[in-house]
Fold:
Amino acid sequence: MRSASKKQPVVMPEELAIRIEELSISYKINVDTKRTLKNAVMRASKGEKVRTRVVEAVKNMTLDVPHGSVLGIVGANGAGKSTLMRSIAGILPPTSGRIIVNGKISTLLALGVGFNPALSGRDNIILGGLASGMSREEIENKTEEIADFAALPDGFIDMPVRTYSSGMYGRVAFSVAVNMTPDILLLDEALSAGDASFKEKSFTRMRELCAEARTIIIVSHALATVTELCDSAIWMHKGTMLAQGKPDAIVDQYLKFLDVGALPSNFEDM
Amino acid sequence: MRLMSESSAKSDFQSKIQVFEPHRASLPPLIPYFKEFWKRRAFAIELSRFADKAEYLDSKFGKVWLVLNPVLLALVYYLLVTVIRASKSHNNGLTTLAHILIGLFTFYFAQNCINSGALSITAGGRLILNQAFPRALLPFSSTISAFWAFLPTIPVYIFVIVVGKYFYPATQVPGFTWNYLWVPFIVICVGVTGFGLALLFATMNVYFRDTNKLLQYMTRIWLYLCPVLWLPSALHGWHRILLTINPLGPTLAATSNVWIEGIAPTHSEIIGSIAWALASVLVGGYFFISRERDFAVRI
Structure:
């Protein structure tokens, strides 16, 4: 990892929620599948070096996201979308460049948000809230609201999460993320949880968040979600932002690039 | 266009204006890191409480196992040391039993910190991929769990000694002494040493997933090298270096002095305990924090 070069002053126009300045993110990964001490000792005894590969997940990206906007990110697998989201959330610091975020972030970047399957949904909501920086009192006041939003069948909220279906699991996770009163909500492939009625409820909740000038960034392969919910979109490919603009135009460009046309499957939640 | 003030509010976590920049010398800004660590201590405490709840949810004896396990193990070691080896134990073996009990309880405290702490990062994968928070909270939570598991063993020890002294009043194991005021010092030193080593092994476990398996053997050997199954006074001459180079050596020797001899720890034991606690937490902490960025891509 390179260290920061000369420090730039923090300049953030008030209307912006997120400013990304010349952001690059790279990391090293081990090529060997078995990451064990035994293998490391064996390699060392043979004088072999650890085989690593540098992944340049995001390359020199600059972007401003205003408050109250919904930004969609589209791109093929390995485009760097999830890495970018983790970097905006502060989970993965940049290799170079800078991200300035104005507001409290709530995230749904990994399925299950660290749920302990042996604990009840209610216990997991409390843990999720505390992990996101809320106080015990704040999260306890929110628990009922979150449980109501998830709308699980009777009594399920107090049952171990391991007894949940995948849809119920996703509903609780989504409910935790959107009910934390975030200024900025980051969702990575999170809208496929639940049935049609829950999806509609999710969309309504997100529109409410936007009306309150909160900012949402959505990564989705369900292009209908991007065109329906977002007011702007970017297309990423192999770590580079190739295009930025209106969602319909970006989705068209992306589909042309994929050379698959507007197939129904591209617009469905997967 | 109005500009926000050139805020100095820099954080890697959840303040209003957050600036995420490359880490200098692989380390995040340490002051915000420790501030956030302290601010989110409730998360570590609750995580520990919920982890214990989840672990013993399906167990009939529940948390009784936390005490029962080291007590049964202490009895096994007592049999090994006294009956099978036919070693001559003075005071009807009560001193030996007391020494093994308190030594094992204390050693178990450190071992639990390290073993569950070592798994805390790889087991907390989803949480790590979804939330930005100081990752050191996860091994810290394991240390809290280990402390809560250790605490009820003290009344068990006291109960054994009170009953033992009733039947064998001539035993040298002391009754109440003001030197028991050294116990919190010992507990803190063991906890800090355990936390520091947990940070170290939690990081290693991210890179080498069999670290935890190796740890099981390492801690077993470590137990034999600690003054738990033998008294510190059994070492003479240069062998006494074993008490110095062992991270728990000075602390367990101090444990033996306070609980078994009823005397205060020696100066070397006090200095050694503090030195190992500081060294463990500094080395383990640096190793852990400097590699935190890797956790999100290696898990």
Q: What stands out?
A: The first strand of chain B starts at residue 17 and ends at 20. Strands of chain B lie at 17-20.
